[in-house]
From TrEMBL:
Keyword Nucleus appears in the UniProt entry: yes
Domain Transcription initiation factor TFIID subunit 2 Ig-like: residue ranges: 589-770
Protein name: Transcription initiation factor TFIID subunit 2
Lineage: Eukaryota, Fungi, Dikarya, Ascomycota, Pezizomycotina
GO molecular function: chromatin binding; RNA polymerase II general transcription initiation factor activity; transcription cis-regulatory region binding
GO annotation, cellular component aspect: transcription factor TFIID complex
Species assigned in the record: Cladonia borealis
Protein's cellular compartments: Nucleus
Comp. bias (Gly residues): 1252-1262
UniProt keyword Membrane present: no
Function: Functions as a component of the DNA-binding general transcription factor complex TFIID. Binding of TFIID to a promoter (with or without TATA element) is the initial step in pre-initiation complex (PIC) formation. TFIID plays a key role in the regulation of gene expression by RNA polymerase II through different activities such as transcription activator interaction, core promoter recognition and selectivity, TFIIA and TFIIB interaction, chromatin modification (histone acetylation by TAF1), facilitation of DNA opening and initiation of transcription.
InterPro entries: Aminopeptidase_N-like_N_sf (IPR042097), Ig-like_TAF2 (IPR057345), Peptidase_M4/M1_CTD_sf (IPR027268), TAF2 (IPR037813), TPR_TAF2_C (IPR057991)
Region (Disordered): 257-276, 1165-1262
Composition bias, Low complexity: 1219-1230
Family in the record: Belongs to the TAF2 family.
Amino acid sequence: MAPSSELPSPQAPELGFSISHQRVELDIDLPTQSLRGRTEIVLNPHSKELKTIRLNCRQCILSRLVVNNKPCPGAAYQDPYSRAKLPWKAGVHQYHMLQQKVEGQLKDPPDQELLLHLPKNTKIDELDPFSEEAQGILLSKTLGKTDSRADSVTAIDLTQSTRTGVEQTARFTPITVNIEFVVKNIRDGMHFVGWEEGDLRYPHAYTTNSLSPGAACCLFPCTDDLTSRSTWEISIKCQKTIGDALRSFSSSKVQLHSNGANGNHNGPSGSDKYDDFSDEDKALDLAVICTGDMTDEIIDPRDPTKKTTSFTCTTPISAQHVGFAIGPFEHVDLAEFRESDEDERLGQNAVPVHGFCLPGRSGETKNTCLPLAKAMDFFALTYGSYPFSNYKLCFVDDLSSDIVDTGSLSICSNRLLFPEDIIEPLYRVSRQLVHALAVQWMGINIVPKDSSDFWVIIGIAYFMTDIFMKKLSGNNEYRYNQKRAADRVVELDVARPSLLDTGPLITLDHLELEFMELKAPLVLFILDRRLTKAGGFSGLSRIISRIFLNARIGDLPNGALDSASFIKVCEKLGHLKLDNFFAQWVEGAGCPRFRVSQRFNKKKLVVEMSIHQVQSEPTKDRDLESSTFIRDVKEDQVPVYAGTVQQAFTGPMTIRIHEADGTPYEHIIEIKEAKTTFDIPYNTKYKRLKRSRRQRERTAAVAGTDYAAGVGDDVLLYSLGDVLQSEEDMREWDLSDWSKDDEDKMSQESYEWIRMDADFEWICKMTVNMQSYMWVSQLQQDRDVVAQLESVQWISTVQPHPLVSTILIRTLMDQRYFHGIRTAAAEVLARNARDELKWIGRRHLEKAFQELFCYSDSAMTRANDFSDRALYYIQTAIPQAIAKIRNAEGRSPFEFSDCHYLACLMKALAEALAARPPPTERAFDDFEDDGDNELFHSACLDEIDRYRRIDEWIPSYHNVLSTTALDCKRILARAGIIETRPADFLQYTPDCTSEYLRLNAFGNLMSLGMIKNDAILRWFLFVLGTDPSPYVRENMLRIFEKTLGATAIGEHLETAKAQVAQQDGLVIEQESSTEARQADLARKQTIQGALNALRDELSANPVLKTELWNAITSPTLSLQQMGDLLDLCELLYTPVTSMVVVLKYPRYWTCRKVGKGKVLFSHSSRIRTTPLPKRQIPSQSQSSQHPTHSRENTNTANTMLPPLKLKFAVPKKPTLQGPSTSSVESTPTSLEGSIGGEAPKPRLKLSFSKLKGGGGQGSPTP
C-alpha cells in the first residue's frame, strides 16, 4: 500500500437539475429476453441557463425523444456495450485499448451516455417558491401523484418540508422528457432463469441491482446516482402464465436467445420448451413483485395472454433501488408469525410482511423468514415508523449476491432457504435477512450524501441488526460475536485506510466493503457503550431514532446523511464532545495495542498500573495472502493510502479489580497519552483467601463428612468450572490440581484478577501480565462471556501442561458455560495432546465425546439428536479438535471410528490423514509399519468416497457431503497423501451439475495448481466467460483472482513439492543462491516481487492469452465483469498499442464464354499470393512495329494490347447470382448506389474492336 496521504473522494458532476418524478412502462418478452419501454421524467432545473440534460442509459435502442411535447433532434447517445469491443483482431496485449473505451462507464460515478440538447424554443421560467404551482411540485415530489394518504396531508405537513427542497425543486418551470426505447439483448440489469435449453427450473426473471456504477440504467434511462431520488410509477407488461409465454414463443417460431455454452447459440424451439412443462405448471400465473404498492393488474384487451401490473412508490428513492421480479411465485404471509400481543398492540399500524418463493418452497420460506415479523415490529417501535407501506421478500435462483436491496422489496437468493431439520445456517441467515430489513430504513430511505459517508449508513444498518439479534439470541451470543469481530478487526486493520477513506473504495474490490461491514458497526458499538455510560440514556438507539425523525420532517435534505450531521446529532443528544472519538476511529486508521503491567504496593495499599500503547512500534513484514492479493494490487495501482498510525488513542477505560473478598471494584481512568501510569486504591482489609478449599472439600468427601463452607474468612465462591471435583472423577479423568507452590503463591496475592476494559469500550488487543491462576479465576468466576473468552485465548498461548488440560476439560464439560467458550476450550485442548504429557489432551477430548455422545461404557455413538443447538456445536467441535492433534513425527493419532455434522467428521478425518509426513521425512525403519497404515488410510478414503456416492443418490442440503468429499481429496492431494486426479473433480464441472458442486470442483482444481494444465485452464475460462448464471460467473472470477494470487506468492510450489515427495519418495534439495532466496522473499512480501513472479510463470502461456481474451470479449459477461478481467490483464501482460489489419488474398479471375458475344468473368478458387510484376503499356508507335505478334505473348512489355471497352447493363431480371459476380472494382457513377445496395448485380458485356492500324491474328473480332 502507498505511503500515508489523504485520498480524495470522487464527486459526481453537477447535472443542473433534479428529478421529482419518473414514470416507467416496460413491455417484457420473457422468452426472447427483450423489452420495449417508455419513460417519462419530470425534472426541475436549477437555473434558467440549463441547456443540456445528461442521463445514464445503456444497452437501449432509442426510438423517440420528446422534451415538453416537442421532438428533440439534438441528442447524442452511444451505447457502451457497442463500444466494448475492438473492431479488429486484437489480443490480451491490447487490453488497455479496450479498457480506455469502457473506463468512463466503470468509474464511480460513471459518465452519462445520453445527452439531450433542449430545443431552442424551450423556455424555463422562474417560479415563486411559495406559489401554488411550486407547492404542487413539492407535494408531488414528497407524496407522489397517486398516494392514498394524500387526503390526510395538511399545511403543517407541507411546511415541515425542507426549505432547500422548496427553493431548488420548485424554483423553475419543470421539464418533461419522454423517451421510447427497445432493449433487444438484455445483458445487464436483469437476469432470466429457466428459459435455456435443458434448464428445467421454473422460469422467472428479476433485476440485478447493485452498488456498482451503471447498474440501474440498463433497463431504462435515468440518473444513476444514489442521491438522485424521486417518486415512481412503474408499469410492467408480460405474459399472464408460463404456458402463455411458451405458447406465444412457439407460435412465432422464434429461437430462444441463450447465454449458454458459447454465449451466442440459439436455444430450443418454443415447442420443445413448451413440452417440458406439465399442464399444471403451464397454468401457473406469472406474478409481478415490484418496488412500491400495486395499484392495479389489467388484462390486455388486445392480447388476453398478457397483463399489465402497475405500482407506485410515493417514498422518494433512487433508480438504483427500483427493482422487480417476475415468476410463478407462491405467496407466504409472514405476518402470521407475529405474536398475538404485538398484533393487538400495533393494530392497523402493523406493517404487512410478504414472502414470495418458487413453487414447492413455501415451507422453507416460512422457516427461514420466521423472525422477520418480530424484527419489523422491533424496528418500528424502537427507531420509528417503517418508510413504506409493506415489505416483501422474493427468493430467486442464480442471484450473484445473497440479497439485493430495493425499495420495500428484498430480492433474495434461494441459497438462503433452509428446512427445519437444518440448523447450521440459522444464525447467519437470520442476521442477513434482518439486515436486509434494516437497510429499508438506513440505506434506502436514508442514503449517504457522499461516498465517504458510507460508513455511517452501513454501520447503523448493522448496529440495528445486531441489537435485534441480541434480543433474539441473547446477550451471551451478542457479546461473544462482538468480541470475535473485534479481534478480527484488530488483525485486519494494519496498514489500511480509515473508514472515511474506505467509502470511495467499496466498488474497487468486494473485500473493501466486507472490511467496512466488519469495522463500522463495531465503532458504533463502542460509541454506544461510551454514550450509555456517560449520559445514562438509551445510547445510540435514541440517536438513530432522531435521525429517522429528522428525515421524516425534512431536516435531512434529500434524505442524504453525512458524517458531520451524524456527529452533530450524537454530540447534541449525548451531551459530549466527540471530536477525538471520530478523529481516532473514523478519520484515523488502525487499532490500539495495549501492554499492561501492574504491581501491588503493600505499603501504600494501592495497585500500581502502567498502560503502554505499542501500535506505533515497527512490526514484522506480513506475508501476502492469495485471498487478498488482487485487492492489494488494486490498492497499489490506484493508489490507496494507508491511514496514519496514531501514537495514542484516548478515551475512558473501565478497570475492574476483583479483590480478596470476591467483591469487584470498578475504576474508570482516562487514557490520554501513549503511556499512562496511575494507582488504584485497594479496599479489602484482609488477605486473599486460601486456595486450599477444594482440597478440604475432597478430603471431607472421602471421610464422609460435610465441609462447612463459609467459616471465617475462608469463603470463596466458584461459579463455573467446578465439575469433575470428586476423587473418583480425578482418577477416572486423570485430572491434576494446583501444586503446593502454586497454592502458596496464590495465598500471597492480594486480589483475584484484574479485568481491563470491563465495559467493552475499545477495539483493541490487550496484553496483561497477570499470573496464570488469575486468568483461571477470571475464566471460572467472571460471568461475562467476553472475559471468559479472553481467558481461553490467553491459555492457548501458554505451554501445554496437565493442569491446563484439566482446566479446559472442566470448562468443556460444564454446561453452564456458553457454547462458544466450550468449543474454544475444545480447540485449545488439542494443543495439550503431546507425547511428553502422555497425550492427556487427546484422552480428555475422547473421554468428553464418549461421555456426552456415546452409550455408557461403550464407544458406540448414540443416534444423532440435534435438538440441543449448543450441544450440536460441541459435538462438531470435538472431532475437529482431535483431527488437529499431531505426534512428534507429524502424524495424527486420530482413531475416531447428519449433513453438516458428517461433513465435519469427513473434513476432520482428511486433515488427520494429511498429517502423515512424506517418505523423505520418515525413518527407513518406519516403512515396515506402513502396511497397516496404508490399510487404515485406504479404509478412510473409502469411507469418504462412500458418503460422496450416497450424496449422489440422496442429496444432502446444498450437496454438503459431496463438496466436503472434494475438499477432502484436495487436502490429501496437497499433502501428497493421494495422487492428484483431475478427473475426480472435472466430473462435477458440467453445467448440469449443482452450482455448489461446480464452484467447489473448480476451486479445488485451481487450488491444486491446475492453472498450469492447458486443457483445464481452457475449460475454466470458457465457463467463466459463457456461463448463463451470474452467480457462477462472479464466483469463477473470485476463484481466478485467488488462483493468480496463489501463483504470485508461490503457494503452488509447496503443493507440487509435497506431491513429488509423496510419489517419488526422494527429493534432492540444493541450497539456493542468495538472489533466489531474496526473490522468493520478495514474491511473498512485496507487491512488485509477486507481480514479477506471476508474469514469469503465466504471461507466456498461449492458452491463457487466447482463452482469457475470448472470455473478455464474450457477450455474456456484464460490463463490470469485463472490467475486472481487464484489470487482471494489466497484472499479467505488457500493453502493446497496435492494430492488426487483415486483408484477404486476391483470387484469380476466370472467364467463360456464354454465347452471343458475351463472356462471364468470375473469381476462381485459386489464390494469388505474390504481387504481379510491373507492366508498362506500350504506345501505338511501338505496337505498330510488331503487327504479327501472337496472342500467347501479350504479357510481354512490347505487346500491342487492343483497347477494351466495357458496357454495363442492369437487367430487370438478373440471371447471374452469387458472390463471383458481385465484385466490380470500377463502376459508373450512376450505378454506385444500386451496386452498394441490394439491387441486382450488373452483367458485364464486353465488346472488342480492331485497331485502325490493323489487329494481329490474336485479336478478337466483334
